[in-house]
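Reagents: none. Just compute today. 3-oxoacyl-[acyl-carrier-protein] synthase 2.
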Amino acid sequence: MTNIELKRVVITGLGAITPIGNTLAEYWDGLLGGRNGISTITRFDPSRHACRIAGEVTGFNPHDYMDRKEAKRMDRFAQFGVAASKQAIADAKFVINELNAEQVGVVIGTGVGGIKVMEDQQEVYLNRGPDRCSPFMIPMMIANMAAGLTAIHTGAKGPNTCTVSACASGAHGVGDAFRLIQRGYAQAMICGGTEAAVTPLSVAGFASAKALSTRNDDPEHACRPFDRDRDGFVMGEGAGILILEELEHALSRGARIYAEMVGYGMTCDAYHITSPVPGGEGAVRAMQLALKDGGLQPEDVSYINAHGTSTPVNDPTETTAIKKVLGDHAYKIAVSSTKSMTGHLLGGSGGIESVASVLAVAHDQIPPTINLENPDPDCDLDYVPNQSRQQTVDVALSNSFGFGGHNVTLVFKKYKPL
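Predicted 3D structure written out:
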């Protein structure tokens, strides 16, 4: 195989729709302030459900990003994806036109896609018959539509796809976009993840799997990664989008550079449909591959944005994996779970957590893990409990692990000209 010169890839734009803010500034301020985004579900009546809490996006108006007719023909997950993408493009001051459109691509991941549309149309089918189902049901439901609609709304004609790997989807989206630019298939990519699965059927399914917290009377403290009293994850919704650019392209237009992306590792446990392999072997390899990809040593790592789901199994397994990868250095770095504030965005989590990791590198500030009051003895690292921290962040890892055994680690680094 012919060797090719890999391009350097930098991050020049960010966008976020989240339970703690619907702009990049609101999201970052919320993270640093330890803002709780979890409350009793309002999008449907949850009274019959075992879990009645979630991280909902509030105050979002799709008409700020698209006209009413377009919004009506999109599921909420696609609305989030398009909105965050437009934010990121504006943040990057990136102009897509007929001269560069074919060199700008889109990879936006999602875990379940348009599940609300599917639920609603099933009701129509059962109660009113098949001929009353919407002709827009399929294009509103299918998972690739956030990526497709983002291209339609922005004019990006380059590589376009959708990653669907459960809770690793958004991270796979960022990683795959990184590879496309590295290898010269695009000059810029719109990438990340989006999800809007706070729906009756989705919440019921996760609750039946005993995956969700049932701390319904205390939603503010329900998501508590690495805490001894955690009892499951809390669902969230939203989108996180990054603009990745080939370095020379970014420099040629005078772009502001947040950070450089240098590593991407992905593996599979090949073990169980929902549980990680004991000891975290798959997560270990993902982190090791990502560091090797970036030409980095364990002691180079400053911060890890953990998968940190607040489930009994994930948190100690991830802690063990981090210690296996970093050795003694694991006790010298900061690790935090921003899910403690936003809830778990499933396929969107890798997107908003990549945004958080990039901002940590750019601003030398580390978001906290809130609700960490009684540390689990098996989780003995520095999880930045309850308050953000000013600290130099030269290298940040972002971990995302998904049902089916998918493991992804992304590596972001301070940009330094050669």
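The mean pLDDT is 97.
Action item: order primers for follow-up constructs.
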